[in-house]
Design brief:
mainly alpha; 3% strand; two-stranded antiparallel sheet; 2 domains; single chain; 188 residues
Length: 188
Amino acid sequence: MFSFLLAIQLQREAGEVGADKWGFLLRGRGAGDKRYADKPALDWLKQDVWERCIDLEDAFGDTFSGLAVDLANAPLEIRLGSMVVFPGPMQSWAGGQAKTSENWGERLTSFERLMVIKTLMPSRVIEATAEYVTTSLGKEFVESPAVEMADLYKDMSTSIPLVFVLSQGSDPMSGFQRFAKDMNYMDR
């Protein structure tokens, strides 16, 4: 998350990501009574996805104009780093023969592709965020470095504690206990 915020801030300061697009990524269009164009009769296209796509087009027509039409008429392919996303099933378009009016993967910046992925496939936004950081800053910003407790111990003192920042699935306790045993600190 920190790397993502760092990448965004760098691009915002460079003028590559505006406050309006950043706000849309975070919050979406916002509440309000709005009439949407009728959703095409496609079983796989859910009403909320259609509405978010229309909102994205309305908010940034200069960038996303035609996205909803292309979504309904032909298979879209959005690439972000090594990630490839197809928002609809390929078989919905007679074997994938139809072509989109735009090459969305090439036309959009990496941040705008992240916006499209969040709009059309919110379940993939975490993976897309990691790919965005990788393309913006580099792979080293998404990988956790391997650290040895002995190296961390050398940097500690009575005024510099060791702080574990935990995330889902991480458990440093076994490594910590193994280090304590190796250092004969288990009884202290």
